[in-house]
Amino acid sequence: MIDPSNVTHSILERFNAAFEQHRPDDLDDLIDESCVLENTSPAPDGARFEGRNACLSFWKGIASNGGLAFSLEEIWAGDDRGTIRWSLQWGKGEADRVRGVTIMRVRDGKIVEGLGYVKA
Fold it and tell me: How crowded is residue 109: how many other Cβ atoms within 10 Å of its Cβ?
């Protein structure tokens, strides 16, 4: 029997790698038609994207930006839910970075929800 936590963890690893390696096309097979995404900004609630095309377009825009450097802190998965803790650097200074977390939900091997939060 396949452990759902292992499936979720694997999907989150692949998702994160697309950002670290600037490989936006690696996201194509990971996003469900019913996906919902809540971005980290604008405050206080973040922009909401609904549907595969909207989520994929947004995430591909970030993954393809060579000026952004994501670093993985931790991936945790339990059943159909998981978290990715990350840091994002966009310049050389200490003020040019932020730490955050994306809370994810996976169904049938696809991401159906991504909720982003940052330390402000």
Answer: 12
Is the pTM of the predicted complex or chain greater than 0.90?
yes
pLDDT, greater one: 84 or 2:
84
Residue 84 has pLDDT above 80, yes or no: yes
Task: Kindly report the number of other CB atoms within 10 A of residue 73's CB atom.
Answer: 13
Closest residue by Cα to residue 100 from 80, 114, 110: 114
Nearest to 109 by CA among 32, 54, 52: 32
Task: Tell me how long the chain is.
Answer: 120
pLDDT tens sequence across 26-53: 999 999 999 999 999 999 999 999 999 9
DSSP designation for 25: G
Give the CATH fold of the 4-118 domain: Nuclear Transport Factor 2; Chain: A, (3.10.450)
